[in-house]
Write a structure and sequence with these properties.
Layout (H helix, E strand, L loop, with lengths): L2 H16 L4 E6 L9 E8 L2 H5 L7 H26 L5 E3 L2 H6 L9 H7 L4 E2 L5 E2 L7 E8 L20 H5 L16 H4 L2 H15 L9 H5 L1 H11 L1
Antiparallel strand pairs: 1-2, 2-6, 3-6, 4-5
């Protein structure tokens, strides 16, 4: 491993941490893309007080944090892309703006895929990324690049949820199927997307006055989220 590549990874991590990224990972995506070989995965945790407030459903605070963290992640992703581009590498920040401008409102590579390839966590029964540090109480972004990172995370290829059924039992829309994820499992095997959307929109309309897909129950009840909150964060 060359000192130049180690320095690149370390300097970018420090830059993103200074910008309030809670988790930063680097992954090999060469087998998943014809265009890009590496990714930078970014996670920012939702405030613990926000999570404590959504036990009975989404709140105005949760709604505001959702969009505030998306904006923060856009800045972090653009910062990472600029850092890499200034050093002669190609880089694409997968921001909310770039998603909106793309066909089908999809990123070229899902943020959750970048996160699992970077070793930040696994896909839970809720189809959300679950991290050991914060559970699924995170918002994600990512950057695609050809930068030659040598210090890469260990890819996560299967669920670590085990026999836990907390999110399935507490899902307002009964949308969670209970299946364990691995890299060959599609989202539809984990969650009934339409049932999730319908229940979340009804809850958001009732609790926040906005007909948007916002619930958060599976985030709040996850044992990894609760373990983080029980450390005194609330």
């Amino acid at each position: 491993m060359s000192s130049q590549n180690v320095s690149l990874t370390a300097r970018l991590t420090a830059l993103l941490r200074a910008g309030c990224a809670d988790l930063v990972g680097f992954g090999d995506i060469s087998a998943l893309s014809d265009t890009w070989t590496r990714c930078v995965s970014l996670a920012v945790a939702l405030p613990a007080s926000t999570i404590c407030g959504i036990a009975e459903g989404p709140t105005q605070d949760y709604y505001e944090q959702y969009y505030a963290l998306n904006a923060k992640l856009d800045i972090l992703a653009e910062t990472a892309a600029s850092f890499l581009q200034e050093r002669g590498f190609r880089a694409l920040a997968q921001t909310t703006t770039s998603v909106a401008e793309s066909a089908g409102y999809r990123t070229p590579l899902p943020h959750k895929t970048c996160a699992t390839r970077s070793g930040l966590g696994w896909i839970g029964k809720s189809a959300l990324l679950v991290t050991r540090e914060f559970g699924p109480a995170v918002r994600l972004s990512s950057v695609l690049t050809d930068a030659p990172f040598e210090s890469l995370g260990q890819p996560v290829n299967s669920s670590q949820c085990g026999g836990c059924t907390r999110c399935q039992e507490q899902c307002p829309g009964r949308a969670i199927q209970g299946a364990l994820w691995n890299v060959k499992v599609e989202r539809e095997a984990l969650v009934d997307v339409e049932a999730c959307r319908k229940a979340a929109r009804a809850l958001a309309l009732e609790r926040v006055g906005k007909e948007i897909t916002l619930c958060g129950k599976c985030i709040e009840v996850c044992p990894y989220t609760q373990a983080w909150i029980e450390k005194g964060a609330c």
